[in-house]
Amino acid sequence: MKIRTILTLGTLAIALALVSWWMGEQSYTWFPPQASAESQLIDRLFSFLVAIGTFIFLGVVGTIVYVALFQQASKYDTSDGPHIEGNVTLEIVWTAIPFILVVGIAGYSYHIYDRISILGPMEHVHESMAHNMASETPAIAPVAAESNDSNAIANPEVVIAVKSRQWAWEFYYPDRQVTTAELHLPADQRISLQLTSEDVIHGFYIPAFRVKQDIIPGRAITLKFTPIREGRYRLRDSQYSGTYFAAMQADVVVESSDSYQQWLTDAANQQPTAAYNQAFDEFQRSPGGRTGWQTVQPAPPPLVNYPGKGTS
């Protein structure tokens, strides 16, 4: 291969890498603001995949376009092309590079998957097996692990029970015995959600947090994350759960620790009232409770201490 050809290909590869890196950086703007520590990990992985995908796409398409435009036979050339034998070295290279790339992507993806502690189908199976085995053996008191992390002691996990049903969310704060229809979270503090479903499979999904967890009926599932950006966000059901699936949403408020404690105190002093539920309201306003299609009746609105500012 001539030096000029090598320099040309090297220059094109560098230019392609720079364009791919730029595209990867642009991918950060395609999502909502990063509102949790986990969102930074997910966005970093996505940016990495976008950069690699851009490099491969432009490289392949660019080669096809170049060959189509500049490697054509003349108009009346009917001769055969040159006879080319196989190149073992080239075949090894183009097999090894994709293999290393795929293994690297898989390893990096699993590393992030493991750090954000999202439970997949196999984990649910393993949990079920462990639960069945535990029910057949005597319980052993766990030994508390010693920790020198002062931050963990000063800011313990905030445990919140999340109950899902067709079609409403309900949040319970056991420390203050507060039930709400709006999820409030302290910023920069580890959150532990205990997710349960009363009927069908639901999906706990907050786009700004980049966390999504399927909620399996009959099983308590723990989801942990750390909100880092104060603001108001939206919780959605990511699993189709029936007629009023689109109405199964709730506000998520991330606030400072002091504001969170003040809100919790104020909510604890309020008498429980029925929260507004869009699905239940629309069903009740239908003539005779009939919507024109088959549907289950929405669960009645939950009694909560704090219905939320977005309710009516």
What does this structure look like?
It is a single chain. This protein is α+β, with helices and mostly antiparallel strands and 312 residues long. It folds into 2 domains: 3-69 and 89-116; 155-304, Cupredoxins -  blue copper proteins (Immunoglobulin-like, Sandwich), CATH 2.60.40. Helix content is 41%, strand content 20%. The chain has 7 helices and 12 strands. The chain has helices at 3-26, 37-70, 88-116, 121-135, 150-154, 257-268, 278-285, and strands spanning 158-165, 168-173, 178-180, 183-186, 191-197, 202-206, 211-215, 221-225, 231-237, 249-255, 273-274, 303-304. The strands form 3 sheets. The protein has a 5-stranded mixed beta sheet. A 5-stranded mixed beta sheet has the order 4-10-9-6-7. Helix 1 runs antiparallel to helix 2 and helix 2 (37-70) runs antiparallel to helix 3. The longest helix is centred in the N-terminal third of the chain and has 34 residues, at 37-70. It starts with a helix and ends in an 8-residue tail after the last strand. Residues 119-153 have low confidence and may be disordered.
